[in-house]
Acetyl-coenzyme A synthetase
Amino acid sequence: MVENKSAQRYAEGVHGTMVLALHCLARLTLPKGCIPLQQRFGAFSKRLPLFMLCTSAQCLPLHTRTGSPSCLSLHPHCALSAHRTAGTRSFLSRAWELSEQPLKKLVRRPLRLRLEAGAHEPMEPVSTPYQHSLLKDRSQYDAEWRRSVEDPAGFWGDMASNYHWEQQFETNHQSENFDVRKGKIFQKWFRGGKTNLTYNCLDRHIERGLGDSPALLWEGNEPGTDKVLTYKQVHAAVCQLANWLKANGITKGDAVAIYLPMLPELPIAMLACARIGAVHSVIFGGFSSDALASRVKNCEAKVVITATGGMRGKKAIPLKRIVDKGLAKVSGLVSKVLVYKNPDVPECDWTDGRDVWWQDELASQSTDCAVEWVESEHPLFTLYTSGSTGQPKGVLHTTGGYMLMAGTTTRYVFDLQPGDVYWCTADCGWITGHTYLTYGPLLNGAASVVFEGQPTYPDAGRVWAIVQKYKVKQLYTAPTLIRALINAGDQWVTKYDRSSLAILGTVGEPINPIAWQWYHEVVGEGRCPIVDTYWQTETGAHIITPLPGVWPQPPGCASLPFFGVQPVMLNEKGEELQGAGEGFLAVKASWPSTLRTLFGDHARYETTYFQPFKGYYFTGDGTRRDKEGRYWITGRVDDVINVSGHRIGTAEVEAALTEHPGCSEAAVVGIEHAVKGQGLYAYITLKEGHEYTDALKKELVNIVRSQIGAFAAPDVIHWAPGLPKTRSGKIMRRVLRKIAAKEESELGDTSTLADPAVVDALIANRP
Ligand code: 6R9
């Protein structure tokens, strides 16, 4: 039982939502509208004498376990406290319920409420003692940040001296136009400089005697399968592949598509491209053949590097088969497919003349390959990400600025130093696997863990077994995985030695405070600062992030800008808001790793990022800023949904659904999901003559799987003979979101709907 003295109540605003969390003891009279847990959970709830009220109307207790005291997963954006129960390291979390109107009013007024003597406010910043190796304290950060924005060329010029430049850049190396009214948007960093990212990741360390240190620590899908590659070994493999690429006609500026599982060959392929100035485009192994084809076509890849297949838990993914299918749709473009024979998935089809084996071809290549020195603004990679229209965007990053931000953020945010064992659980198919699995750690001479498998295979202890095995010092992962591991139970964590851990990071979506606290308390035993890093594919590197040990960290807060980044909070009119409040998150000036364009579509680049608020880069996210100037990211404000930290454009999913011959119209919205953060909820209108059946639901889900990938499959299909549209024919997504969230009492004004009756029909039709 939770002891009386530890009962707490507080109200906290996060995500613009005022939340009143009531931790009631059984004796307390419940306010109207609060449903006792007992009622919801039956006998299990007897161990949770707690009640919660939430005005966001989104907070529902979603997961329970009947084992030892455990956590309930909650609405990911809500602030809530958790405290340890006597005698166990587990947390009891709180269930949330909807409150009724009078209480809402009460809650909305002050930010924090104290409702009972002895209550305390648990969401205070957490101080986790840690001595940062570069920054003494907050005032040093303040001074350096100020210099970085007042004298960007000087500041980044100094930082750049940590890297090798074959040709020194000019003193005044930086220029930009961030304002569409003044002409074309551009950003240039390190003008006149020539460098090479792979040289800086590998050769530089070998030259200073780190050649025999581990660079990549590969952990295979099956426990017990592993491989250590030193800097020298990675260098040799990179050179062999770089030589093969050259021998096959790839030169500076050519595009190479990479579709590989998480084998060491994946970062090696990226580094090989960068060594010769080729532009890599990594396509996530979860993408379907259609998605692969559209990306290969868009980036104009001449070569595809793939594998026979890859293992995810017990499942084999036939990557080569997907490539064959995809390339059939873009015939004539790709001249060579280099196939890594993965012994776990040995079979695949073969196209003579086009397909060649990695193992055969590379063995005869030299392990030395001259570096191609490239201008600082030479393209490094394109990476496709979802936007608010159907067509994915090819985000293009260039060499010098990206290198500087990748190296510097990794050094400061993870306090990463040569020899550290660092593990980022992301796949290289996403930006995090580029900046913080490959380039950032290698630029800093660290050992980066590359994990092929699934974090819960063969059991829920795998992550912690890997931490113990490699003595991981910095662990970087996503809130969705943290939530999944919370649900598995603390015993999986505590079974393994985590004493090597020093810093814990998260990325991909706002982290709910309960997940934050579990990560801090259970995983890190209260010793490890948590860095909740906010950034995007487009920003190339962290832009708002804590720095470990430099200031106390409130759970769920991305906090302060990294060096060189000037965030602003804007209102709808694009005016900068001062002080505490809430608004749109934008950035005022260029930082070194800003995306330079969308490949082949500079106009879309300007429209997407620079048109919405003139003079600013618009992130697409909302933010809250507290009176201490800290930023709390509140999530996307556009039609992009964040599922398990993966960005999915609603328009992309809608386009796939309407490919079905029976589908007349589709509208997709996000719903809260306990583990994934957000899930996809699709409203479907069928064409005349088609029947609303369960079999058809399956077909619709399958079409999304095949056009985009399984991770984008809708969680719910809601039959919608009519959609709520304005008289001008625009779908009112707000109404769809409310119905999906079962918040129809909060639909708001529907008077502009062409046919308000469709709303009732949709509610009646709810699956
Ligand atoms: C790195 C990455 C970017 C979107 C971004 C935002 C969300 C990422 C976050 C976060 C709150 C954080 N996001 N990190 N939201 N707190 N620490 O995830 O890139 O796949 O392009 O997604 O993810 O909504 O706009 P990407």
